[in-house]
Amino acid sequence: MKNHHLFEAALLRSAVHEVIRGFGCDEEQCALIADNLVRANLTGHDSHGVGMLPRYARAYREGSLQPKASLQQTKDAGILLTLDGQMGFGQSIGRQAMDLAISRTREHGACIMALGNTHHLGRIGEWAEMAVEHGLVSIHFVNVISRPIVAPWGGSDARYGTNPFAIGIPLRSGDRFILDFATSIIAQGKTRVAYNRGASLKPGQMLDDRGQPTTDPVYGVLNPLGALLPFGEHKGFGLAMACELLGGALAGGWSVNGPADGKQRVVNGMLSILFDPSKIAQPENFEEYAQRTIAWIKASPPQPEIDRIVLAGETERDICRERTHNGIPVDTQTWQDILQSASELGVDSQRINRCAGM
Ligand SMILES: NC(=O)c1ccc[n+]([C@@H]2O[C@H](COP(=O)([O-])OP(=O)(O)OC[C@H]3O[C@@H](n4cnc5c(N)ncnc54)[C@H](O)[C@@H]3O)[C@@H](O)[C@H]2O)c1
Question: Which spans of this chain does the record mark as coiled coil (predicted)?
């Protein structure tokens, strides 16, 4: 039985826009948040797309997510900028913060931006892509204050979040390197996606609530929760701790230090380092060596089950082309959850279905 529907991106965007009105956002903010969420789905990251809406609705109802909050500047030392997101929607706070950091980088050649107290910043690659569109390199360390869901390397229970890390590097002719991942072996949202689809996880990704290996995604979704493992063993764990210390304790002013408090909010702290590569290197030299290296790396004969060698960011662009053409799959359970949240926010779910072309 078919358990998902394929949505045309524009229709899904308009349906999500309607849902976000239920948070009391203005039209511009609704459009921006809807666009960000649908773009996460378009790039293949369903974990950070429209399926996050029910969680946002719960965070809003408990009084954590503040849809009307605006970005505050708390420290300003020229190229060093400290910002407070006031628990606003990360999709719009993140964009405002990056706009500021980009304009500082244009002025000074570099900017280190600390952003704290922001509700879920979504797909972090979005912010690296923004910088790349302005010809800038950016590096992002992010922590997550939510239910701890990742075990430290060698540990057997969840102590911290999926702390994402991203790097964006602009390359010639509009090409770009966008490395963007959770430092857990998979993003937590991928356990929700698997659970809603009735799928199993791969072995070696998760421990159950007793610290035993499991492939059942329920341990990432419902209590009693288990723990995801860090990617890359002790190395991924080390990078996750760098995200906690730089993105959380330093930039966000808050880092994980105890068990879940039962709240539904997802708070991100982010330390972003932006710079103009043309102020560091000879652009022609950088481009020439970047292209030579990429050509050399990509010439490696692919293994039998692999089509071609891809660089970070290419998979997302391929999926985006495919989904723009064929539609975005949203499973039935996720769509029902979105409609239910919309009703609870006072938005007519029939209207949402009509906007989505259902
Ligand atoms: N805001 C938050 O709190 C939060 C927390 C965790 C994750 N996230 C986001 O979740 C999203 C998903 O994270 P993830 O860890 O599941 O991502 P993932 O495992 O899909 O890895 C994505 C990265 O790997 C690259 N990649 C994919 N296939 C490749 C291949 N065959 N060869 C070379 N490179 C390849 C991609 O281009 C991308 O840079 C990210 O956008 C991340 O920012 C956000």
Answer: none
